[in-house]
Amino acid sequence: MSAASLDTVVVIGSGVAGLSAAVSAAEEGAHVVVVDRAGSLDAGGNSKWTSAYLRLEDVYEAGESFVDDLREFSGGRTPDWYGKTLVELLPETMEWIQGHGARFRKFPTYFINSNRPRLQPVGGGEGLLIHLRAAAEKLGVEFRYETTAERLEVGNGRVTGVVVSDTEGTHTIPASATVIASGGFEGDETVLGKELGGDVSTLIPIAPGVPFNKGEGIRMALEIGAKRGGQWDSFHAEPVDPRSGQPEALVMVFPYGILVNKHAERFLDEGRGTVDETYERTAREVWAQPGGTAYFVTDRKFEQVTDRERGLLTSAKPVSAGNLDELAAALDLPAEKLAATVTTFNESVVDGPFDWRVPDGKHTDGLTPPKTNWALRVDEPPFLAYPVACAIVFTFGGLETDAAARVVDEQDTPIPGLYAAGECTGIYHDKYPGGTSVLRGIVFGRVAGRAAGRG
Ligand SMILES: Cc1cc2nc3c(=O)[nH]c(=O)nc-3n(C[C@H](O)[C@H](O)[C@H](O)COP(=O)(O)OP(=O)(O)OC[C@H]3O[C@@H](n4cnc5c(N)ncnc54)[C@H](O)[C@@H]3O)c2cc1C
CA gyration radius for the chain? Predict the structure, then answer.
């Protein structure tokens, strides 16, 4: 292990944001130390487990709606400069990462009725990590695993190092610049409970990377005066099958049946928009139900949705029954209530053509809550059901940064020697614009690393 000095750039975290920063800083000639709390096999946080869909038309093309989506999904709170900087830096960033071996393709997604663009790296997030780690090692970046960053050292108004704990104890790594890339606080149930409210014990970690992100990076910057960004009481949510135990056991087919809670009551419009537009809100509304659980109930007509398997990433088979009473018994739902809910629903379904590929306007009449699209009666055995719970992917609250990835204080003044990128920076509000988290980690990780490396 080489000795770190004041010319060292310390990067906290080795997901896509941290590795993009580390490689970029090393390319500027800096000596770079990456610390990660995980061991070498587990390091990579959420990046290790993600499919890493990118909200791009093509490798160098974000598409016309990119900046507008970021603004509109956040209710106007994500500033335009953020999206515009991302789009502006996209071509050179993609050129750079492809130069390190990454390749991108258009693969079909689990959003089976959506037409928003998505591009994917070959090998998903892990594929990106493999290429970036190899580049970092070639450039002489030093990796210290099982090393947890605890706090920042400050001297003469700038960040001068990082206090870490490892198997040998606690010590300081002096640094000319520090890049925080340690993810959100989704892995700390206590902080989650405080910031989100609600029963966080019923949230399911989307993947084994989640518990590593406990928010120390965010906390240590706030301790020295950094400003909060993003919506602290919200998070990126996905609907999953709680029986599966697999990472990202998605149930993205909820518009093709009804969703009921433990009392066998419907509680939302399952067909209010495409899956891409509605899956996050649906997952959050499931979380708000008793026990944080719901049941997607459908019938034989589900077979008409010919691409349904693409929207079902759960490894568990559906609960199947010949009649609704048996289904209720298998799911431990009140049978009379389930029958009444289904009957009321069926009676309100308006006849018309069904097309699972697009919002088809096949709706209910006089029902609360209504179903706006894809309303087919649930009346043909076998009846099928999947339990659905809310998975937490990452938290929205984090650090505020500027276009140069510098962490800013309450006066919007950059804190000298401190940069941040990826999940630990707070920009999202309300609804997550899917396919932007990995992308921003790469783009702003690179911005942070280059600046930190130049000193
Ligand atoms: C299953 C799944 C699917 C997803 N799908 C998509 C998708 O399709 N598209 C998309 O854009 N996003 C997606 N996301 C989200 C996206 O993958 C992440 O938000 C993004 O990869 C985060 O990158 P990061 O580098 O900021 O953090 P991470 O990749 O989480 O890395 C953080 C690293 O910091 C380390 N660390 C944490 N605290 C400390 C500490 N105190 N000291 C030292 N090290 C520390 C962790 O061990 C970890 O290695 C998905 C996530 C998951 C899990």
Answer: 23
> Which positions ≥6 away from 34 have C-beta within 8 Å?
10, 11, 13, 14, 18, 19, 22, 136, 141, 142, 143, 144
Q: How far apart are CA 435 and CA 414, in angstroms?
A: 28
Nearest CA to ligand 1 atom 39: 182
Look at phi and psi of residue 382 and say left if phi exceeds 0, alpha if psi is from -120 to 50, else beta: beta
From 70, 182, 314, give the residue whose CB has the most ligand 1 atoms within 8 Å, as the site to mutate: 182
Segment 223-253, tens digit of pLDDT: 999 999 999 999 999 999 999 999 999 999 9
Asked if 448 and 22 touch (Cβ cutoff 8 Å), the reply is: no
How far apart are the C-alpha atoms of 292 and 377, rounded to whole Å? 26
**Element holding 339 (H helix, E strand):** helix 335-348
**Residue nearest atom 2 of ligand 1, based on CA coordinates:** 50
Tell me the pLDDT tens digit for each residue of 51-66: 999 999 999 999 889 9
Q: What tens digit of pLDDT does each residue of 137-153 get?
A: 999 999 999 999 999 99
Ligand 1, atom nearest to 440 Cα: 11
Structure tokens at 17: 């944001």
Name 63's Cβ contacts closer than 8 Å, sequence gap at least 6.
55, 56, 57, 117
Q: What's the order of all strands across the beta sheet hosting 169-174? A: 148-155, 158-166, 169-174
Q: How far apart are CA 131 and CA 108, in angstroms?
A: 23
Contact between 213 and 423 under an 8 Å Cβ cutoff? The reply is yes
- d(CA 211, CA 222) in angstroms, rounded, equals 21
Expressed in angstroms and rounded, the spacing between residue 423 Cα and the centre of ligand 1 is 7
Q: What is the percent of the chain with per-residue pLDDT over 70, rounded to a whole number?
A: 98
Phi, psi of 229 (to 5 degrees): -130, 165
